[in-house]
Amino acid sequence: MNILSQNKIKQIRGLHQKKNREEQGLFLVEGEKMVLEVLRNAPQLVRYCVLVEGFENELVKRTENYVCSAEVLKKISTLTTPNKLIAVVEKLTFFSEEPSLILALDSVQDPGNLGTILRAADWFGIKKIICSKTTVDCYNTKVIQASMGSFLRVEVVYLDLLDYLAKTNLPIYGALLEGENVYHSKLETPGILLMGNEGNGISEELKQFISHPVTIPQFGSAESLNVAVATSILLSEFARRIN
Asked: Quick one: pLDDT at residue 80?
């Protein structure tokens, strides 16, 4: 077993930043549960693992791995309470067919929200999410944590969302407060479901492309729904109709 070098420490700390993740094509997966899921499902993507002294696992032994103290792991981790294991992983490449329903995100900023949306998309069989370039990086460690492994199965693409929506021939369902009750709406696929920013919703420049505005009816007194919760509800209704 190898001792973690200063160069590896520098690389790992560098991967806390988006620009370094993009330049190197690498990202971090932290925590025993998450790392082992990657090792089980996509071991070829794991560049190397870092583990605390005394931790042992057969899957980890099959990869290039480095040992360090709990103190060092805490210094290189992005987590407030680091686990025993970190993996440096190559970014994923997907070769999936165009799905029947595409989820589009306009400037979703919170990593926890994007991770939860990834998890919901995976649950409801959504294979592809397209994001505006102002949406949080899907390889942010907090996104990876919140996705609970769904980042391995759902493709995330960043593009000029305005240009994409302007050119598509697919129906675009947009989540708007003034939209039609989704439970009474005719939902057809293939199509695109567009969700907006946590505070401002869908931007004005994108609203013009919405062909089918939909809303989730309110039955109680809550002021609003979190974007990840709203996405889950709408995906559930699409899945119910499709299946």
From this structure: 85
CATH number of the domain that 47 lies in? 3.30.1330.30
Looking at residue 110, the DSSP 8-state letter turns out to be -
* pTM, full prediction: 0.94
Tokens 């440096």 correspond to 88
Structure tokens at 39: 């090792």
* Spatial distance between the Cα atoms of 129 and 148, rounded to a whole number of angstroms: 16
How many domains does the structure of the chain reveal? 2
For the record, the structure tokens of 152 come out as: 């391995």
Q: Domain end: 90, 112, 147, which one? A: 90
State the pLDDT at residue 31: 93
Pull the structure tokens for residue 187. 């939902």
Q: What is the mean pLDDT of each run of 10 residues along the chain (243 residues)?
A: 90 97 97 95 96 92 94 92 92 82 97 98 96 98 96 96 97 96 94 96 97 96 94 97 82
The two three-digit tokens of residue 228, written as one number: 């990840």
Residue 96: alpha-carbon gap to chain centroid? 17
Q: Note the helical H segments in 103-226.
A: 111-123, 141-147, 161-167, 204-207
DSSP secondary structure string for all residues of 77-104? -SSSS--SEEEEEEPP---PPPPSEEEE
CA distance 199 to 42: 36
Provide the domain limits for residue 185. Answer: 101-242
Q: What are phi and psi of 149, to 5 degrees?
A: 95, -10
